[in-house]
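TL;DR need structure tokens for one chain.
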Amino acid sequence: MPLKPSKKKIAFAGSSMTQKEVDYVVDAVKHGWYDTFDKDTKLFEQGIAAYTGRAYALAGFCCTHSMHLGCLVSGFGPGDEVICTDFSWAATAHVIAYTGATPVFVDIDPDTWCIDPKAIADAITPKTKGIMLVHSFGQPADMDAIMRIAREHNLRVVEDAAPSLGSMYHGKSVGSFGDVGCFSFHGAKIAVSGEGGVFLTDRKEMYDQAVLQSNMGRTNRLANFWCDSMGYEYQMANVVAALCRAQVERIEELVAMKRRIFDWYWERLKNVPELKLLREKPDTRCNYAYPAVLLQTDEISRNDLVSQLKTLNIHARAAFPRMSKFPMYQARFKNPVASLVETHGFNLPSALNITEADADFVCTAVKHLLGRS
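>> reply
TL;DR here they are.
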């Protein structure tokens, strides 16, 4: 018997807002000017630095800008190669290319969809300057192995932790292992401000350089508005920082909400042989920003499954295509795991307004489309 569409849009992603966010934003609108023009920005930076255990934080307009700063202060440039996961949103590779360096795309771990340390080691050449990794959909990458490789070969490490605030590796926040870590506050992330990003590091010289680069290279050395180098306008507005600040203060609550949604899916889908749900590895915590699933059958295509779910007002999302296939880049390796995930991987809806009844309907619909109703 055909299923009827959900009356409620079961959204792929969405935020949780409380009176705290309203109060902080209203206060910033009313009072965040003149002598307090950057009050919330500074409080946000202090809060996220404390939460992640980093020494320095720099708020930015978006995570792409923050990652670009990470690449710049890591010294990436023309003639350099930066080893990069082949499975991510395009910004992960683009920020490397912005510096003139070349992203070298490597394969991913089948159990986390994060960059495979063995693939990193196999891709190192005399031109290799750094590693760009992603904590994919909140799954922590294997930071012990990655940092060991980086130390052995004197490589810089930039962590694209865009969706992963609240995820932990061996009890320590992701984004706190590499030379630079970056988080996103885009409206689809676990903590949101509509748009926003943050650059984090323990190295003062990197932080100072990032501050300079994010403010057009302005130094005022010889005159007001004097710039001693090229730079960018990569700063965050104070009113946006007020919303970020409130969300960071609630991050443990938000992680618990995401993990509860994943648990609902896991209990209902764990024994479906056509599906592999990615679970956190031992001694890690995944924030389950976007529950990841591998379709293990060709009886229905991933694209058809996602499309048919949408007709039921269930908004799942197909996995990323491999960036190495983009016309502006070149593929050096075949990357078979990323190749499988790009055709068979998808994410279940995880908007923070999803109820257990919503999750139950999603699972019923998935099993129905797989012929297991």
